[in-house]
Design goal:
CATH class: Alpha Beta
Strand order of the largest sheet: 2-3-4-1-5
CATH topology: TATA-Binding Protein
Radius of gyration: 12 Å
Helix content: 25-40%
Strand content: 25-35%
Amino acid sequence: MSNSVKYSGISPEIYNNLRSKLSGFGINLAGNNGRISEKGVSAEYTFDETTQTLSVNNVKVGFPASMMYSPDKIISTISQEVQRAGGQVA
């Protein structure tokens, strides 16, 4: 797996639901784009309401998260939540 992923079919409602779900994992998406940096996990994200896409790029995992997670695991977790919310991997 790469350290980036793009999702499609992400309406504003799905995005807000996804933000809520991911915050339970310590992944906080503030606004439509930005940078995540929590407990050793970092990434950049962009939600485009017009094209209904969400991109997550440059996923990196450092200490202490690296003791339990890899970038692949983080992307897999996000992908599962995106699919549960109604979106799909583009």
